[in-house]
Amino acid sequence: MRCSTVVYAAIVVGVAAVVACAPVNGGDDGDEGEGEGAEGEGEEGEGEGEGDLPECARLGDDVVIEDASDLASVVGCTELGDVLVGAPELTSLAGLESLVHIRGQLFISGQSTSLMSLDGLNALETVDAQLVIQGTPAITNVNALAALTSVGALAINGNDALVDVSGLAGLTSIGGYFSVNNNDALTSFDLPGLVDVLGDISFNGNSALERLDGFAVLESVGGSINVVNNYGLTAVDGFNALRSVGLTVEIRENDAILSIDGFNLVEEIGRDLNILGEDALQSLAGFGALTNVGVMLQLRGLGPITSIEGLSSLERVGFTLAIGGAGDLTNLDNFSSVTEIAGFFDIGGATSLVDVDGLSSLVSVGEGFILSYADSLQNVDGLSALTSVGGDFSLGNNLLLTNLDGLGSLTTIGGDLTVTTMPALVDIDGFAQLESVGGEVVFDLCAQLANCAAEALAARLGTTCTCTFNDEAATCP
């Protein structure tokens, strides 16, 4: 049912209109009382029935506002179902000042080409489903939403002129997703009263966004936090009351980020922590309380960062720890509490890495172990606690390593043992305690390693050796 407003008192300056809602399908214009419930006919008597609702409380699910007449039809309503606004001629939503509660969604679309403000929504407190402001070319702020405290979901996407969202300061709860995407003029975003978000948070493609340093009381996020392709973003320093993230935190390809120093009370991330393609990153001091990453921790493409100051409390990674393309990283010191990686360990392209002493507590890797292209690595002494690798164990292109003595506690490899392109490697005595290898032994392109030593290791372990391009002339005791 749609609502048409019947004005019973003259509208004059300083005098409010008295309105009631009558059903659009209640019959032709005629004498008062005609239609369903006229003259006592039907189940309701005269003056009773839907036509007498005082506040549009029984309005149908959809209200579509495409022009001024549609807006006039809901003047005085305090509660509505879905409200869809696509009105090219309206400059504001004046007339909705009585609206307090939307039982469905409020969708303000890019068809509202002249809409410059949301004035008229000043009393709105709750939107049960999603609040979407999308593709509007003229809205510069959302100040009219100052009374809003709760929404089922929030999307502010593709609003070219939007510069100020401080009008959402009273928002305390978002029941679903929360996205802020492709708002080209937006320089900052903070919801200082927001306590919880049950779905995902997304900041994507906001080219003028400079900092994410707010959200001072946000405690929990049920889904993921994605900060992606915000090319003017220089710092992610906020979220410092946040304690848990249900799924993933991903910070990716924000070309100007210098620091990620926030998230300092987060203790657990349910799925992944991914920091990827941050070519300008100089400081990663955040996530200081994080103890557990449920599935994957990826740090790839970290630019000029030389050390990871955060992550100092990390104890366990549920499946994969991967560090790659961090050419200036010299150490892994803040991983000293990690005891177990249930899946894969993969460090590649850390060309300035001098040692792996920060891995001194690592006891087991459940699947594969890869340490490659660490051109400056002097030793693997930091792996002295490692006892087992469930899958393949691979060392490759670590050009300065002369020995593997730090692997003296390693007893079990579930898959292949591969050592390749290690031109300075002289001995493999570090494998003296190795008791079993589930696959084959491969030593390749280790020019100073006696080939017979590699063959002897394979023979002791009862497996085959693919041993090529090593020192064939050297003799063994």
Task: Give structural notes.
It is a single chain. This protein has 477 residues and is mostly beta strands. It has a domain at 1-54. Helix content is 3%, strand content 27%. The protein contains two helices and 38 strands. Strand 37 (441-444), helix 2 and strand 38 form a beta-alpha-beta unit. The longest helix is centred in the C-terminal third of the chain and has 11 residues, at 451-461. It is elongated. 39% of the residues are buried.
Number of helices: 2
Low-confidence stretches: 1-55
Largest sheet: 32 strands, parallel
- Count of distinct strands: 38
Compute the gyration radius: what is it? Answer: 32 Å
Q: Kindly name the structural category.
A: mainly beta
- Nearest-integer average pLDDT: 88
Shape: elongated
Helix content: under 10%
Distance between the termini: 94 Å
Strand content: 25-35%
Question: Any key phrases for this structure?
Answer:
single chain, 477 residues, 3% helix, disordered N terminus
Q: What topology emerges from the helices and strands here?
A:
Elements lengths: L2 E5 L11 E5 L38 E4 L2 H5 L6 E2 L1 E4 L15 E2 L3 E3 L17 E9 L15 E8 L15 E2 L3 E4 L14 E2 L3 E4 L6 E2 L7 E2 L3 E4 L6 E2 L7 E2 L3 E4 L6 E2 L7 E2 L2 E5 L6 E2 L7 E2 L2 E5 L15 E2 L2 E5 L15 E2 L2 E5 L15 E2 L3 E4 L15 E2 L3 E4 L15 E2 L3 E4 L15 E2 L3 E4 L6 H11 L3 E4 L9
Parallel strand pairs: 3-5, 4-6, 5-7, 6-8, 7-8, 8-9, 9-10, 9-11, 10-12, 11-13, 12-15, 13-16, 14-17, 15-18, 16-19, 17-20, 18-21, 19-22, 20-23, 21-24, 22-25, 24-26, 25-27, 26-28, 27-29, 28-30, 29-31, 30-32, 31-33, 32-34, 33-35, 34-36, 35-37, 37-38
Antiparallel strand pairs: 1-2
